[in-house]
Prior knowledge:
Blueprint lengths: L1 H25 L6 H4 L12 E6 L3 H8 L1 E8 H5 L5 E3 L6 E5 L6 H19 L1 E7 L6 E7 L2 E8 L3 E5 L4 H5 L14 H18 L15 E7 L3
Antiparallel strand pairs: 1-4, 1-5, 2-9, 3-4, 3-9, 5-6, 6-7, 7-8
Amino acid sequence: MHGVALGIGCTILIVAFFMSRRSRQAVPAPVHPQNFFPAEHAPVQRPVCWMAIRSVSLEAVQQALGLNRAEPCSWVSGLSGDHGFFISPRVHGWVIVTGNALPTPTEDVDATYVFLSALSRKLGHVQYFYASRLLHHHAWARLDDGYVSRAYAWTGETVWNQGPLTLPEHEACLKLSGYGEHTVSILDAGGNFEKVPQLAARWSLDPAEVKLDSLRQYTGIAGESALI
């Protein structure tokens, strides 16, 4: 009888041990924020088209764009261009906006102008940059309270050239032409295309080179716009 009791006791202990072990394995490891957000050295994809908006909140930009179904989005995921709009947190006084819903001069330069003017009337100072590897089309613009202070767009020919040349454009030795002129060669267009990030860094920010200094800066919002 003692042997039977001892055997039953040992069996109960063994079963309890394995149940406890299985329970520990079933508990998922805690999810830390750093597991979701990329390390600082992770490569960041520069978007084809983006805006830099000065000294505003995410909420103000979200309202101006009519963004709905908004959800948190990491910086790297947002810059990939897979969302209608991605709105970054404010970094060094700027909010970056990108996404596949942004108009481009390749598609319709007039629609691009109307969109930027309307947004600038709501948010103040807005900058716009476009650098497409497709035929090296490129553009940049600065607007204040709905008015264009400087804009240039080339899509095989110059389709937008407004306002005086800025010092950063002059120092970058960009090859520009007037309306309807084909004087910009494919080689010159390639040079302009490559210098768009450099111009953006001088005017505001190059989103691919931003150094984020806090976890809060890694989190923006992404969604679709009811206005588009």
